[in-house]
Specification:
This protein is mainly alpha-helical and about 240 residues long. The protein is built from 11 helices and 3 strands; from the N terminus they run ααααβααββααααα. The protein has a 3-stranded antiparallel β-sheet.
Length: about 240
């Protein structure tokens, strides 16, 4: 008897139980909020909930979508840093897994959106500047205003690039304070951390406020409750 093929295995054994599959719309809504299509969130959600890497054929069969749509969407998710792929020699195909760091994904999305927004605005302001110069000359007060706008736009763009690059770099560096803080917060929240980071989460933050579990639990995970004002034991109704 021949062993079941990849396609037959996918058809016989769904990757997601019905109750998990019912939660895919939440992933679709999350990705749609950042300008993606629903299919991006659906595939990323499937990879998260499946708990193991999947091939393109398995994804297409599980979500009942075409192989072309699956391939295109995976390429886009990889380009946006939301999915990573590795070639599996025994199966002779690429296996895809979700990137779990949503902060990194959001940072990438916002950075690229910011680049497009600044580029479009800069091009429009430059066109307006050219029109005014040709019609009214360089002495027109609007020339100085638009040049000032373009200069501040360049400065703002440079600052935003620096911020996003710093955040993205810090998230990718396990030794950075931001990365350690997030790892420690996950530990406090009961989320398992992989590898040595799970064992050293608090030790790596020794000497800082972030090493205090009560500090993290209160400052990050639980909103601070407002204490009722004390009346010194003298309760009055009015």
């Amino acid at each position: 008897m021949k062993p079941p093929t990849e396609a037959s295995q996918t058809e016989l054994v769904p990757f997601l139980a019905p109750d998990l599959a019912a939660e895919l719309p939440a992933f679709e809504a999350f990705f749609k909020a950042f300008g993606f299509k629903q299919i991006h969130g659906r595939i990323w959600g499937l990879l998260v909930l499946a708990g193991k890497p999947m091939s393109s054929k398995e994804i297409a069969a599980e979500l009942a979508i075409s192989s072309g749509a699956t391939s295109t969407t995976l390429k886009e998710l990889i380009d946006w840093g939301a999915v990573h792929s590795t070639f599996d020699p025994p199966r002779r195909c690429n296996l895809h897994a979700a990137v779990e760091n949503t902060l990194s994904i959001v940072a990438t999305v916002l950075r690229r959106r910011e680049q497009v927004a600044f580029q479009n605005f800069r091009e429009g302001a430059n066109r307006a500047l050219d029109v005014i110069r040709k019609r009214h000359g360089n002495k027109d007060p609007r020339v100085l205003t638009l040049r000032s706008v373009l200069s501040t736009c360049d400065i703002a763009d440079a600052v935003m690039q620096l911020v996003f690059s710093s955040v993205h770099g810090a998230l990718g560096d396990p030794q950075s304070l931001l990365s350690k803080a997030i790892g420690t917060a996950l530990k406090v929240g009961g989320v398992a951390l992989p590898g040595a980071r799970k064992q050293r989460a608090f030790e790596d933050l020794s000497g800082t406020d972030l090493a205090n579990e009560e500090f993290l639990e209160g400052a990050i995970l639980k909103p601070k409750k407002t204490e009722p004002e004390q009346s010194g034991g003298d309760n009055r109704d009015g």
